[in-house]
Design brief:
Protein name: DUF2000 domain-containing protein
Number of strands: 6
InterPro entries: DUF2000, Pep_tRNA_hydro_II_dom_sf
Strand content: 15-25%
Shape: globular
Pfam families: DUF2000
Organism: Actinomadura harenae
Largest sheet: 4 strands, mixed
């Protein structure tokens, strides 16, 4: 099935494996929380156990250098049709959402030490923003 929108997560290539997974999870939650239409119905198995709903479309995870990440971020910020979430290095040192937001607020957009971004928007613009980035292995 082909979707009109795309969800792309980009993580910096020099992160430890646990950091990549952590960043991906947090950024995915941002898309889910801000875009209810991308979440499907709850699951249920044949035994009657119920499970949480998930995305209705694939989430593609890419890797990028710090420079590539900054470039994708700058281009995304300039577009009105792309929704973006950011994860910065400083957030690894905090333990709660309020402090995470404060670390982002303390920096200018071009000074964010990005370790990951999530993009959601129309398929073609998202594809253009992520062009040339490899999928996470």
């Amino acid at each position: 099935m082909r979707f009109d929108t795309k969800i792309g997560i980009v993580v910096r290539d020099d992160l430890a494996a646990w950091q990549r997974l952590n960043v991906t999870a947090f950024l995915s939650s941002a898309v889910a929380g801000a875009t209810p239409s991308v979440i499907g119905e709850p699951y249920e198995d044949a035994s009657g156990n119920r499970y949480l709903p998930m995305f209705v479309q694939p989430v593609l995870v890419y890797v990028a250098t710090a420079e590539q990440l900054a470039s994708a971020h700058a281009r995304a910020v300039a577009r009105d049709d792309i929704r973006e979430a950011v994860y910065i290095e400083d957030m690894f040192k905090t333990g709660n959402d309020a402090d995470n937001r404060a670390t982002v607020l303390a920096r200018e957009a071009d000074d964010l030490p990005l370790v990951g971004i999530a993009l959601h928007g129309p398929r073609n613009p998202v594809d253009k923003l992520l062009k040339g980035l490899p999928l996470h292995p």
